Every structure is written in structure tokens, then in C-alpha cells.
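Fig. S4 source data, part A: sequence.
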Amino acid sequence: MNHPSLPSLLAVFAHPDDESLLAGGVLAQHHAAGARTAVVTATWAPDSRRAPELADALAVLGAGSPRLLGYNDARNLEAAPGQPRLVDAPLNEAIGRLVAHIRDFRPDIVVTHDAVGQLTGHPDHVRTHQITLLAAEAAGLPHLHLEAGPPWQPAALYAATHPESGVGLLRPLLEGAGKEVLAVPDSYVTTSVNVAPWTAAKWRAILAHRGEIARERPLPGILARLPEADRAQIIQTEHFTRLTPGPTKGDPTRLAA
């Protein structure tokens, strides 16, 4: 995800605002460099109160229109009334919905949550990680999800994450709000991106999630109450772990033939 290469990027996250908090800088960076970008959000319905805020955030980041899978939030059933929670949805159905977006957008890179659920371990974050890993592979196989369009294999999959050494000010802030902090070992991180040139756009995108800014416990609201210097320190670096979808050749640790 570094210059001078400008791969197309599809971000897949659980809730509106995850895209801005976790990969807003990288999305803004890629858009500014002329790359195609888009965001799939696993929960909340197109007619929900958070959908217009998501649309505003994506407009700031240059990531097109919202792509919503439409599932209910595990902890907030107003997200998509009458729809199953993401964590309860049939796995193959959820994979198929995401495969359709991957095949439609045809990204070089897919970015999603990490396996521990992004610091707080939210069950929707964990489930989105699991679904995205399976969908990134399934999208490249022509005999799976025939209804979702011609196959497309992303070249790389990245998990947005937080290393122990990079949590910094976030730890006391989240713990002060009664949240768990699940950072990963530093060795788990393969890519750290300095997004300082794009933090203004990233912050505007976070601010677009007005309902979360107005609340005390969600991270956007916590960030909004911080001094500007502290907030900049928190949001100016984004960390990722590269995962490889599809077959990989030439692995020295491969099983003997």
C-alpha cells in the first residue's frame, strides 16, 4: 500500500465509522493518488440513521457510495430492524453478499478488521474479519457463488490492527470508557503507514459520523474531546497485517510433494 504503486482498494468493515477510524488515511491517500477505492459495511440498513453519515464520510474520503450488506448490529438492533444480526447470519449467505461486491469492484487489495476484533473485540468486527477472509478466496473461484458474477482474485488482503507499541494514548482513553483493549504483538504488524498528510481528510470523515461524535463512549466522541495534538498523534499512523488470499507458490515451508 505504498507509493509509487497505486492499487485499487476495497475496505470491508463492520460498522459505519470503522472505515474512517481504521483506514481513513489510506483510503484518502489512495484516492488522492488516483486509485479506485470503495467501502463495504457489514451492518446497518440503507434507510438507517447512520447511512447518510456513512455517505458523507465516504464522500470526504473519495470512496464512492455506501455498499451495505444490511445485517443487524450484534449490540444495537435498530441498525437493521427485521434483519438477522451479522453474527447470526448464515455464513455462506454473508460470504456470497461480500463476494458480489468484490467481483463487482475488482480490487487489487482488500482491507478488513483483524482477528481479535480491533482493540475492543466487538463480535461484529471478529465476524467481519472471518467473512472477509473466506470471501476474498471464494471470489476467485469460478464454481463458488455463481450468482455473484465472474470470478476475481484480489492480489492481497490486509487486516487493520493495533500493535502493543502503537496503542499509546488509546489505551487509557478506551479503558477509561470501560472498554477492553486487545492489541496484537508488534511482530504481527507487517505494514505501518504514516497518513499525516491525509489526517485532515480522515478527521473530517470521522466527524461526518455525527451520531457517534455526540456520544461519550464511542471512539469518535472520545477523539472529539481530545486536544488537537493528542488526536493527531492517535490518527496519523495506520497499522496493517498482510494476509494472502488464494494460492501462493514458492513457499519454502510447503508440504513435501
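Fig. S4 source data, part B ends here. The mean pLDDT is 94.
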